[in-house]
Specification:
- This protein is an all-alpha fold.
- The protein contains 18 helices and no strands.
- Helix 4 packs antiparallel against helix 5.
- The relative contact order is 0.19.
- Bound molecules: phenylalanine.
- Phenylalanine binds next to helix 1, helix 2, helix 5, helix 10 and helix 14.
């Protein structure tokens, strides 16, 4: 099987693709808005702790399993199981991951569709076509559906070209672009009046909130979502890494890029909110909390861009382009999960299966669009609130308790011969066995009982 499988052409190729998966709407939208609503740096601090202490170990588990099995998540989870019962259980966990990844793509493509429509609106504004711009920002069901389809079409086109020519090539083009746009926007926003208040809100922690259990739940959820964990994306990307590569370093690089971009996004969004306030825009809701979530992106920021004249129109264009790119490099990793499974299980043509699966996801997404109030929040909570932490827990238990320690060591040492004497090997096995499962159970339990 491994001969016909795709492989990343280089270390950098993998880091860009996996960071592309990790860096998404979760970083540029989710992280700053969570930080805004949960005590600024208090959230930032807890997020960094969660990312390194909980998410990185799980990311490593996925990368190691994937590269060891060189197969899709269902096959890979069975490979590391040691009896027929755990093989079936492992396969089911892999399969649930595939379903979760597809469902995440479902709601993700709806949000990404909004980003594209706002991108078009900014373009129309620049061209002076104000009525058309207005149309793009006030989409009905049909308009929404149209942009979901456009976004999924781009995703499918990239994935259908394969690992090297599609996923790696496009991540390598889009990730540097994303970084450049983000830096330019930060540089610009920080020169505006009011930005300093945003920096203060971001970096002066509200210490009361640091150990708030609710903040911990949110930080863990954010870290799992942001590192694309537990649904098979990192496992499948891991399966495309060459055996010569050092997984410990690669995993670390991806985690660092993910955290850095999230922190940078905070440097853009929070100051932008306070600049908006300085320009007379309301940034607090009735309860006295900072406006977050969709209202922030689609009301506060566009209102801010409006107050900035021509420059604002370009800033808006850059911002929604940034969001679209971030979403696209993540969505391709989500689609790759079911595609790899179908290609390897039914030995079908990749191109055909990509379009088939993308069409099924499109139909599901359209059902959500048509029943938005009923289904959207439900799908988000089901996948990110329940499925991701529980699958993460299952992954830790499988790696820590079912897979033989020596086999894991052998896998990592192929690209890191001295790993046995490294700090990683002193800490990680214990972590994945005890600390991560216990922490996930505690945090998840806290979420359920509250
Ligand atoms: N990590 C992506 C983000 O931050 C979301 C994602 C979740 C991607 C699960 C793949 C799998 O937006």
């Amino acid at each position: 099987m491994s001969l016909s499988r795709g492989e990343f052409s280089s270390r950098l190729g993998f880091v860009l693709a996996a960071s592309g998966s990790a860096v998404g709407l979760g970083n540029i939208w989710g992280f700053p808005t969570q930080a805004a609503s949960h005590g600024g740096a208090a959230f930032l601090m807890m997020y960094v702790v969660m990312a390194f202490c909980l998410a990185y170990p799980v990311l490593m588990a996925e990368l190691i399993i994937g590269r060891h099995a060189k197969a899709n998540s269902v096959a890979a989870m069975s490979v590391i199981s040691n009896n027929s019962f755990s093989r079936k259980l492992g396969a089911s966990i892999g399969f649930l991951g595939i379903v979760t990844s597809s469902l995440i793509l479902c709601f993700y493509s709806i949000v990404a569709g909004w980003m594209i429509s706002y991108l078009f609106a900014s373009l129309a504004n620049i061209l002076g076509l104000n009525d058309i711009a207005m149309w793009f920002t006030k989409l009905g069901v049909v308009g929404n559906a149209l942009f979901v389809l456009i976004f999924l079409m781009f995703t499918a086109i990239i994935v259908s070209s394969g690992v090297k020519q599609g996923i790696e090539k496009w991540s390598a083009r889009l990730m540097p672009l994303l970084l450049i746009i983000l830096l330019m926007l930060i540089g610009y926003v920080l020169t505006l009046d009011g930005a300093v208040d945003g920096l203060k809100a971001y970096f002066l922690p509200d210490f009361k909130q640091v150990l708030d259990p609710n903040l911990m739940v949110k930080a863990m959820g954010q870290a799992f979502f942001s590192l694309s964990l537990a649904v098979g994306t990192m496992l499948i990307y891991g399966s495309y890494i060459n055996k010569k590569e050092n997984l410990v370093v690669l995993g670390c690089a991806v985690t660092l890029v993910d955290i850095t971009i999230a922190v940078m996004a905070g440097l853009l969004i929070l100051p932008a909110m306070y600049v908006a306030q300085h320009n007379g825009i309301v940034i607090y809701d009735e309860a006295g909390l900072l406006i977050a979530q969709d209202k922030l992106i689609f009301t506060v920021l566009p209102a801010l861009f409006d107050t900035m004249g021509v420059v604002g129109a370009f800033a808006s264009l850059a911002f929604f382009l940034l969001m679209t790119i971030a979403a696209l490099t993540s969505s391709i990793s989500m689609l790759e999960v079911p595609v790899a499974y179908a290609v390897e299980t039914y030995t079908v043509n990749r191109n055909y299966i990509v379009w088939l699966i993308a069409s099924i996801i499109a139909v599901l997404a359209l059902i959500v669009v048509c029943n938005f109030k009923l289904l959207f929040g439900f799908v988000v909570t089901l996948t990110t609130g329940y499925s991701q932490p529980l699958l993460g827990l299952a992954l830790c238990i499988f790696t820590g308790w079912m897979w033989h320690r020596n086999k894991i060591l052998l896998e990592i040492s192929q690209g890191y011969p001295n790993v046995e004497h490294s700090l990683f090997w002193k800490v990680w096995p214990f972590y994945i066995r005890y600390v991560c499962p216990a922490a996930i159970i505690m945090v998840f339990g806290q979420q359920i009982f509250n």
